[in-house]
Design brief:
Elements (H helix, E strand, L loop, with lengths): L3 H6 L3 H7 L6 H13 L3 H10 L1 H4 L3 H14 L3 H12 L6 H24 L4 H8 L4 H11 L8 H10 L3 H13 L6 E5 L2 E5 L11 H13 L3 H18 L8 H16 L7 H8 L3 H16 L2
Length: 302
C-alpha cells in the first residue's frame, strides 16, 4: 500500500481520510486534517483537532498554526482568540512555540479585518464594535476606521481613549487620530490621568533620529538575534503603552532592562549578572530594576 505521504502528494485526499479514520498517530492525524482542508471541509478538520488535541499537542507549533487558520477560515474569530488564550496557559514548550504565540493574535486580527472589509460593514455596525468591551473586537474595528472617514467615528474613538479598560487599546485609538491628523482637542486617559491632547500636534512614535540611534545601539549590545527581536517587541509595546509620554531614559538603563526581561522570557542564562553589567556601564541597578518592573507591568496589562 502506498504511504500516506505518497497519497497526499498525489492529492488522493479521500483515501487518506479513509485510511486514517481510527488512527491515533500524530502524523496520520495531521494528514487527516490537511486532507479535510484540501477538500474544503473545515468543520471536519476542526473536529479532528477537538477530538485528538492531547495527541496533536505533541507538535504544538504546528497544531496552533493549523488550529487558528481553520477557525479564521470558518470566520470563527471569537473562538480563535479563545484558543490563543488556551495555548498561552499551557506550560512552556519551546521558543518556537512562544514566538508563534505572540504572532497569532496579529494573524487573527488581520484575517478578521479582511473578513469585515469584504463584508462592507455598515458604519453603524462598526460603531457598535468600537463600543464593545472586548479588546479582540475593538482593535480590528479601530483598524477598519483607518480606511473610512474618521470624523464619523470621533465620538466613539474618544470614548475608547477615555474609558476602555486596557491602556494599549486607548493608545491605539489615539495613534489612529494622530495618523489621521485630527486637529481638535480630545480627552485621553493616560495611565489613569485624564489629559487633553490635540492629535495633529503630537509626534508619532517610532520615528526620528533618537529612536533609530537607540535601535543601532541595541543592535551593538544584543548580539543574539532572538534576544534582539524580543527586546524590540518589548520596547515597541512599552512605547505604545506609555504614549504620548516620551522615553527620556539612559540608553544603558533601557537596554539592560530590555535584555533582562528578554532573557527571562526566552529562559536564557547569562554568564554575567545584572549587577555586573550595570557596574561595567556605570549605571544604577536600582534604576534598571525600576524600569524592568514598569515594562513588566505594561506587558501584563497590554
Amino acid at each position: 500500500m502506498d504511504s500516506l505521504k505518497s497519497l497526499m502528494d498525489r492529492k488522493d485526499y479521500e483515501l487518506v481520510i479513509k485510511l486514517t479514520k481510527d488512527s491515533k498517530d500524530i502524523t496520520h492525524l495531521f494528514y487527516r486534517i490537511s486532507s479535510f482542508l484540501a477538500l474544503g471541509k473545515g468543520e471536519e478538520a476542526l473536529s479532528v483537532i477537538e477530538n485528538n488535541r492531547s495527541i496533536l499537542e505533541g507538535d504544538l507549533p504546528l497544531l496552533m498554526k493549523i488550529h487558528i487558520e481553520i477557525l479564521c477560515l470558518l470566520n470563527n474569530f471569537d473562538k480563535a482568540y479563545e484558543e490563543v488564550r488556551y495555548y498561552e496557559n499551557l506550560p512552556y514548550q519551546s521558543q518556537r512555540a512562544e514566538e508563534l504565540l505572540r504572532e497569532l493574535p496579529k494573524i487573527i486580527r488581520e484575517e478578521e479585518k479582511n473578513s469585515l472589509m469584504n463584508k462592507e460593514l455598515p458604519n453603524e455596525e462598526l460603531k457598535k464594535r468600537l463600543m464593545s468591551s472586548e479588546p479582540d473586537i475593538v482593535l480590528p474595528a479601530i483598524d477598519m476606521v483607518r480606511n473610512r472617514d474618521i470624523n464619523i467615528f470621533i465620538n466613539e474613538l474618544e470614548q475608547i481613549m477615555m474609558n476602555f479598560d486596557k491602556q494599549s487599546i486607548r493608545s491605539f485609538a489615539l495613534l489612529l487620530c494622530v495618523q489621521k491628523q485630527i486637529d481638535k482637542e480630545l480627552r485621553f486617559n493616560h495611565l489613569g490621568e485624564i489629559i487633553v491632547v490635540n492629535p495633529s500636534k503630537l509626534e508619532p512614535p517610532f520615528i526620528g533620529t533618537e529612536f533609530n540611534d537607540f535601535l543601532r545601539y541595541m543592535d551593538s549590545e544584543l548580539k543574539d538575534p532572538s534576544v534582539n527581536e524580543d527586546a524590540i517587541h518589548l520596547l515597541s509595546s512599552y512605547i505604545i503603552y506609555v504614549y504620548p509620554e516620551k522615553l527620556a531614559i539612559n540608553y544603558g538603563v533601557l537596554v539592560e532592562a530590555l535584555r533582562t526581561i528578554a532573557y527571562e522570557y526566552l529562559q536564557i542564562n547569562d554568564d554575567s549578572s545584572l549587577e555586573a553589567r550595570c557596574q561595567s556601564k556605570k549605571i544604577s541597578i536600582e534604576e534598571v530594576e525600576q524600569l524592568i518592573q514598569r515594562i513588566k507591568n505594561a506587558m501584563d496589562n497590554f
